[in-house]
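Journal club side-thread
Mid-discussion, someone asked how the predicted structure for our own chain would compare to the paper's figures. Pasting it here so we can look after the session.
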Amino acid sequence: MNHKLTPDSLDMMSFMNGLVFFSPVALLVRTQAGISVSTFFILQVLLSFTIFALEIPTGKLSDRLGYRKTLIISEILLCLSRLFLLAAYRSHIMILFIIQVFLEGIAACLSSGTQSAYIYSVVDENSFVIKTARVSNYGTLGFVLSTIGYIFLYHIGGIDLLLTATVISGILGILFSVGLKKEHTKTNTNTEHKFHKATSIKNIMNKKTIAVIALVSCVNLSFILINFFYVDKLQICHVDVSYMAPIILGYSVIQLLSEVIIRIFNKKSIYAFFRLMFVLLGFCMILFGYISLLIPVIALMLLMPLQAEIIACILDKIQNDFIDESGYEAQRAEMMSIFNMGVNIIEIIFLLGAAFITNVGPQWSYCVFGTIMIIIGILSVKFLKN
């Protein structure tokens, strides 16, 4: 793999996808167009259901069509979804919001496992985690710059200009996706027959599959807790929520260190480092839920997203290694979709439980989740490649 800092088409595509200029006022985009908060959450449920229902069909499509072509289609649909959001905001027409959600959901399904499968097919095994982190970092960089750009664009042209700028970045994302190089297909002569002979997800499931799904679920849920409950923690510490914007920028910039850190440990034992980071994040979650001193709270706010990002990048490699060991290389995207489907089920169960736990106190969500994360981390790693 080329370790030069010059970005390739995938890096730039990720960067353009991260340029979501309206992100700080995503809810206002809907409410100012006449969508109530309750309807907004219904639209989010519709988005989640779309992703859940289409995970495996889009995975099959990706394996048959090719990862590069699938990513191009995903970029086109993502851009269209942003265009429909702009049209919905201007027209206040509900059906356009619904179409936007479906398009976004399909785009997310087409890219979720496909991007990881694509990276795995175009770089050598030792470079996979580093490349995954780099692509993620370009997306984070785009998010940071769009958050800064939001301040200026909003004052110049309001939400309309924010949405227009996001559509333009989507168009550029399509152009960069067309520049993606063709993947190298890794084949197994018996894999097609073997996969369909399995006939069902039940036959694919084993202890190792469940372990991987549990680990991925923990990482996804940690990002959910970070994104949704950080504001609540600031209020507990009696800090004005206006400080949330610089905190988001702060941890987004710190996340850019993930590639550097992974590069250091990638030459040693990446899996031992993974186990350490996973359990450490669980302890940080517990500590974050328990303490209310401002400086330690902010320090953890800045640290935990970096930990979760590093774990997520290594988990992509773990999933792809598992697919290779299982002999399903030709169905890589479909297998990733099966993982994601299992993750969605666990996330729904946990979030329903978290809704009950937060009635006792939001901090308990962190404490309970951190404990679960430590237990799952300790129990699951023995099923992973050492």
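Post-session note: DSSP finds 15 helices and no strands in the chain.
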